[in-house]
Amino acid sequence: MAVTTAQPTRPPSGATPTPGGRRSRGATSGIHGSRWTPYLFLSPFLLLFITFVAVPGVLGIWISLHDWDFLLPNKPFVGMQNYADLLDSGSPQFQPFWNGMKATAIFVVISVPFLVVLPLLLAILLNRKFPGRTFFRAVFFAPFVLGVAVVGLMWRYLLDPSFGMVNGLLGALGLPSDTAWTTEQPWAWISLAAVTVWWTIGFNAVIYLAGLADIPAEHYEAAEIDGATSWQKLRYITIPGLRPVLIFVVVTTVLASANMFGQSYLITKGGPGDSTRTAIMEITDLGLSQYRMGQASAMSYVLAVFLALVSLVNFWALREKKS
Amino acid sequence: MKRRNGPLFWIGMGALSLIFIGPLLLVLLTAFKSASESRTVPPTYFPSQPSLRAFDVLFFQDAASPVLRWFLNSMLAATMHAALVLVVCSLAGYALARMEFRFKNAIFTAIILTLFVPGFIFLMPNFLLLDKLGWLDQIWALVVPGAAGAFGVFFMRQFFLGLPKELEESARLDGASPFRTWRSIVLPNAKPALVTLGVLSYLANWNDFIWPIYVLFSPERLTLPAGLSRLQGAYTIDYPVVMAGAMLAAIPVLALYVFVQRYVIEGVASSGVKG
């Protein structure tokens, strides 16, 4: 008990180094404390990190090497069979998996250009000085604080082909009012991409705005003196100045779109047919509804490797142009 | 940049605002309609006979869908999750920002690397872990696993690195222990970062969809997003009820957002610039 008593007169340990081990741990003080102090600060996080990130990351590979049915007692080791099945057009996993990969790829390709460019235009607009700027920024960001469940349920109603208000408003404007937004292609893809833009535009816009604030105003002033047009200023000052931010936005947006799940789960229910059943829908349905976790884990690692490759290509492509 | 913003600019701003807020208002108005009015062609925008029927059905008529219970579950899970993230990440972030120890760089690198690993990798193995822990269909399934994310630790570490060291030095000279320094000097000065991380964690947990729909099973254990998606039953959907439910999930976060939008937006912006 004596060790815990404070000793106000002793010199701070940092100023007078004391031989290690001589003093009890409780009496040691200072920013560094005893040598165990940092680990004590880290331990709650590390416990969670090891349990729910490090171990599962490896456990997932282990699962993928088994015929792992959650509901069956036997989970026989099958080696690389689950992976081989994904490449074998005769296996039952082949068609649903590649259909999901294709749907995910389509969604990435059609949504990412809009999710990268439209927020940039919005950010350039919001970067001008005008009264109420913070207010408008908050308004455009607002949908992003909603969850995908709210966004999906509300747009499923608004986009309903027969009584939805999107068709209602188009009809009121004299435009075709019978578009099958959720039940026919390509409208289903267009709807999913548009809803995603509506939902997340504020996120990328805010990231661009932070990047725009770092571009010195003198660059624009100098360009104006030289008589540069708006387009030239965008092309030669704004975009080069935003390059690091742009790389971040492209890479994270591709990953976010490749993770698309809730929108098609709620708005198109994977349809029409299984055309909007994304890879994530396929994986969760197989692994967490049908509990065939071995096959589903193998699929998730294949998808992860694909995404890592795509991210590397993005980094590389966006860096190259610099020279 | 002396250009004045003309009327065209303001019309554009107004139109854009309408695109972002209008759909929410249409959905809110739908919640006050009768089931049949929600399906008229062409649709009405304002309810012809506004009623609270949808809210009555939502809250009181359907015993299989205890919506108030879902609301409380969501609130409790999000609060506990945000509190856990704050404690765990401000402790670990402080050690990584201010202390020297063996394996510091290795630990930090390992944490940061996981920022690049897509979350769906962890779905199946974490489901199995929760099963072993007896946490399936329990609130812990929502509260704990998500708190192991790298973002919070990284965010707090960056903030602590930016704090001046002098305050901590003087506390040290006064003989305060590291824990005491952290608790009574560092944390009070980290309020903006704690608010930002707390709100972002709360929102993420409140809005989470893919995880609760697979780890919760009993109707009375569901969160609001997971429960609402089940309201969209097989038979014809009572849209005013579903829209009322969507608004029940949306309004608390929108209200929170109105008060802390600066923290939310700046937190998001900093994640992009520093990340």
Automatic annotation (TrEMBL), chain A:
This is Sugar ABC transporter permease. Keywords: Cell membrane, Membrane, Transmembrane, Transmembrane helix, Transport. Residues 101-314 form the ABC transmembrane type-1 domain. Gene3D superfamilies: MetI-like (1.10.3720.10). InterPro entries: ABC_transporter_permease (IPR051393), MetI-like (IPR000515), MetI-like_sf (IPR035906). The chain crosses the membrane at residues 39-65, 105-126, 138-158, 187-210, 245-267, 298-318. PROSITE patterns: ABC_TM1. Coiled coil: none annotated. It is a multi-pass membrane protein.
UniProtKB/TrEMBL annotation, chain B:
Its main location: membrane. SUPFAM superfamilies: MetI-like. Residues 71-260 form the ABC transmembrane type-1 domain. Gene3D superfamilies: MetI-like. Pfam families: BPD_transp_1. The chain crosses the membrane at residues 7-32, 70-94, 106-127, 139-156, 193-217, 237-260. It is found in: Cell membrane. Keywords: Cell membrane, Membrane, Transmembrane, Transmembrane helix, Transport. It is a multi-pass membrane protein. Belongs to the binding-protein-dependent transport system permease family. This is Sugar ABC transporter permease.
